[in-house]
C-alpha cells in the first residue's frame, strides 16, 4: 500500500465529514442560533470569559485537545496493523469525535459556560455529579503527570527542541499583546508569529541545549518536570488572552504547517507502507485488538478530555453560536489529521518490514519516538531536509502540543479542586486551588522516586478513563437533545459503542492488574468502573425522564457561584450564572 493513497483517502473522508455531517449537526441537531448571546458576552470578565475571534479560539481549542495523545495512541496501535487504526481514526473522527466535541461545546454555551461536571448535576443529579468528579479528577491527574514526564523525556532526548519549546512562550506573550493591545490584524500577527517560531526551531537545531546529568541534585528529567509544573501553575492563573489563547493559536498554525510538511513529503516521496495491514504476528503479550484498539487510540478518534476543554475553557470564549461548528468539529478534524499523519509516519517511515518490527518488539514500544523517527525519515526523503532538522521539527511539534494540553489540564484541575472544595463547604481561592492541583500532580510524579517515573504509574488507565469520560459526556448531550424533542441517535450510537468497549477493556485490565499484583491500579480501576457504571445507569434513567420533560431547557436554574470555580470551572454549579 502506498502511503500517498492512504493519505488521500483519509483526508478526503475526514474533510467530507466536516463539510457534510457537521452542517447537519449544526443546523438539525444542535440548532445553533446566533441571535442567542453566548456566555463570553453575558459574563465577560476579561480573564476567563472573553469573546474571541473564531480562528484564534480554534487554535486554543485544537492545541489544547491535541497534545501528545493523537500521536502516541496511533503510534502504539499500529502494532495490530495500519488498517484497524486507519478505520477507527477516520470513522471515529467524523461520526464520534466531531459530534462529541461540538456537542459538549453546545451543551456548555446553552448553560452559561458550565462544564460537563456541573451539567451532570443538573441533568443527572447531585450523586451523578459527585461520581462524575471522581472520573474527571483522575483523568486530569493522569494527563498532567504523564504529559510532564513525556515532555521532559523529549527535552532530554532532543536538546535541539529546548530553545523553540521555551522561546515559544515569548512569542505567545508578544502575539497576545499584538492582538489585544496593539490591535494588529490577525493575518499579520499569524505570519510574524509563525516566522518567529520556525526561526526558533532553526536556532534550536543549530544550538542544542543539553542539561548536565544532575541539576540541583536532581536528574535532568526531574528538573524539567518541576520547571514544567511551575510554568503550568503560573500560566493557568493568567488571563486566557495573555498566554493561553495566543500560545495555542500560534501552535495550531505551527501544527498545520508541520502536517503540511509531513503530508507534502508523503506526496513527494510516496513511501510504501512497510507495516502489515493486519498484523498476524503481534509480539507476545500484545492485548487483543477488540476492545483495546478503541481505548489505545482515544484522542484522534474520540476523547473525553475534549469535552472537558470544550466546556471548561472554550465555551467561555465563543463569539457566537455558529462559531461552535468550526471551533468544535473542525478542532476534531485537526486532531484526526494529526492521528492519520502519525499512522503514516509510523508505518511508512521505515525502510523495511524488518526495520519496523525492530521498533515494534512489544506492545507500547512505538509512541512518540517512532513518530519522530519515522516522520523525520519521510521529511528527509521528501523535502531533503537534514535528518537532524526534520527530527527537531517533529519533536518540537510533539512537545508544544503536549505542553499546551498540560497548560489547559492544570487550569481545569484547579477548577475541579475548587468544585470539590465547594461540595465539602470550603471556598478555595484561585491561588490555593492551583497549589493543590500542582501539588497533587507532583506528589504522584515523584511518589516512586526522584526520577519522576511516578508520573506514568496510573497512565495504563488513561485510555479507559478518557473514553468513559466521553461516554458520560455523550449521555448528557443525549439527555439535552431529548428534552428539546430532537433525535438523540447521533449521540447514542457513539455512546453505546464507546461505553461498551471501554467497560469491556476495564474488566480485562482488572484481570491484568490482579495477575501483576498491581494493587494501586486494581483499586483505581474498580473505583473508576463503579463510578462510571453508576453514572451511566443514572444517565439512562434521566433519559427516560427527559422524554416527558415539558419546559424551557435553555433557562438554567440560578445558583450562586463560588469564588473562581463557578465562573470558570469544570465544576461550579454557578458557572457565573445570574
UniProtKB/TrEMBL annotation:
It is a multi-pass membrane protein. Residues 2-347, 362-505 form the CstA N-terminal domain. It comes from the Bacteria. The chain crosses the membrane at residues 6-26, 62-80, 86-109, 130-155, 161-179, 186-203, 223-244, 251-269, 289-309, 329-354, 389-410, 431-450, 456-482, 489-507, 519-541. Keywords: Cell membrane, Membrane, Transmembrane, Transmembrane helix. Its main location: membrane. Residues 550-578 are annotated as: Disordered. GO terms for biological process: cellular response to starvation. Signal peptide: none annotated. Residues 566-578 have a biased composition (Gly residues). Pfam families: CstA. It is found in: Cell membrane. GO terms for cellular component: plasma membrane. Belongs to the peptide transporter carbon starvation (CstA) (TC 2.A.114) family. This is Carbon starvation protein. It comes from Janibacter alkaliphilus. The lineage of its organism: Bacteria, Bacillati, Actinomycetota, Actinomycetes, Micrococcales.
Amino acid at each position: 500500500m502506498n502511503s500517498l493513497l492512504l493519505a488521500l483517502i483519509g483526508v478526503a473522508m475526514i474533510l467530507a465529514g466536516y463539510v457534510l455531517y457537521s452542517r447537519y449537526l449544526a443546523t438539525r441537531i444542535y440548532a445553533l442560533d446566533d441571535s442567542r448571546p453566548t456566555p463570553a458576552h453575558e459574563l465577560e470578565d476579561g480573564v476567563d470569559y472573553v469573546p474571541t475571534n473564531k480562528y484564534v479560539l480554534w487554535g486554543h481549542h485544537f492545541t489544547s485537545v491535541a497534545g501528545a495523545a493523537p500521536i502516541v495512541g496511533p503510534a502504539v496501535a499500529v502494532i495490530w496493523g495500519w488498517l484497524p487504526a486507519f478505520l477507527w481514526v477516520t470513522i471515529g473522527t467524523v461520526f464520534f469525535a466531531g459530534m462529541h466535541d461540538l456537542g459538549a461545546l453546545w451543551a456548555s454555551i446553552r448553560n452559561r459556560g458550565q462544564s460537563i461536571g456541573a451539567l451532570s448535576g443538573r441533568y443527572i443529579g447531585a450523586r451523578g455529579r459527585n461520581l462524575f468528579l471522581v472520573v474527571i479528577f483522575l483523568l486530569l491527574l493522569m494527563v498532567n503527570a504523564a504529559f510532564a514526564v513525556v515532555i521532559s523525556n523529549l527535552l532530554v532526548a532532543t536538546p535541539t527542541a529546548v530553545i523553540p519549546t521555551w522561546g515559544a512562550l515569548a512569542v505567545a506573550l508578544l502575539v497576545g499583546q499584538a492582538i489585544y493591545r496593539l490591535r494588529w490584524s490577525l493575518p499579520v500577527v499569524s505570519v510574524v508569529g509563525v516566522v518567529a517560531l520556525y526561526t526558533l526551531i532553526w536556532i534550536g537545531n543549530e544550538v542544542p541545549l543539553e542539561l548536565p546529568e544532575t541539576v540541583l541534585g536532581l536528574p535532568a528529567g526531574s528538573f524539567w518536570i518541576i520547571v514544567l509544573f511551575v510554568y503550568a501553575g503560573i500560566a493557568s492563573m493568567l488571563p486566557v488572552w495573555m498566554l493561553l489563547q495566543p500560545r495555542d493559536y500560534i501552535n495550531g498554525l505551527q501544527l498545520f504547517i508541520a502536517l503540511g510538511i509531513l503530508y507534502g513529503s508523503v506526496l513527494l516521496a510516496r513511501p510504501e507502507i512497510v507495516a502489515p495491514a493486519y498484523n498476524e504476528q503481534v509480539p507476545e503479550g500484545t492485548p487483543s485488538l477488540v476492545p483495546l484498539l478503541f481505548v489505545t487510540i482515544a484522542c484522534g478518534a474520540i476523547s473525553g478530555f475534549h469535552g472537558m476543554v470544550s466546556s471548561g475553557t472554550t465555551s467561555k470564549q465563543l463569539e457566537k453560536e455558529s462559531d461552535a461548528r468550526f471551533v468544535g468539529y473542525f478542532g476534531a478534524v485537526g486532531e484526526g489529521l494529526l492521528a492519520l499523519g502519525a499512522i503514516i509516519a509510523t508505518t511508512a517511515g521505515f525502510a523495511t518490514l524488518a526495520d519496523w518490527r525492530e521498533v515494534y518488539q512489544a506492545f507500547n514500544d512505538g509512541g512518540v519516538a517512532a513518530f519522530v523517527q519515522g516522520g523525520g525519515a519521510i521529511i528527509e526523503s521528501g523535502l531533503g531536509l537534514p535528518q537532524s532538522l526534520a527530527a527537531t521539527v517533529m519533536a518540537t511539534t510533539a512537545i508544544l502540543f503536549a505542553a499546551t494540553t498540560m497548560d489547559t489540564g492544570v487550569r481545569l484541575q484547579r477548577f475541579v479542586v475548587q468544585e470539590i472544595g465547594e461540595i465539602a463547604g470550603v471556598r478555595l481561592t484561585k491561588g490555593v486551588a492551583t497549589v493543590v492541583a500542582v501539588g497533587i500532580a507532583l506528589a504522584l510524579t515523584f511518589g516512586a522516586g526522584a526520577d519522576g517515573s511516578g508520573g506514568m504509574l496510573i497512565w495504563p488507565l488513561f485510555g479507559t478513563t478518557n473514553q468513559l469520560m466521553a461516554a458520560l459526556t455523550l449521555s448528557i448531550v443525549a439527555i439535552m437533545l431529548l428534552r428539546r424533542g430532537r433525535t438523540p441517535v447521533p449521540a447514542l450510537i457513539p455512546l453505546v459503542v464507546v461505553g461498551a468497549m471501554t467497560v469491556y477493556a476495564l474488566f480485562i485490565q482488572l484481570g491484568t492488574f490482579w495477575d501483576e499484583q498491581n494493587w494501586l491500579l486494581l483499586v483505581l480501576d474498580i473505583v473508576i468502573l463503579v463510578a462510571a457504571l453508576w453514572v451511566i445507569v443514572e444517565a439512562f434513567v434521566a433519559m427516560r425522564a427527559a422524554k416527558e420533560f415539558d419546559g424551557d431547557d435553555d433557562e438554567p436554574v440560578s445558583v450562586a457561584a463560588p469564588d473562581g470555580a463557578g465562573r470558570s470551572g469544570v465544576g461550579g454549579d454557578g458557572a457565573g450564572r445570574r
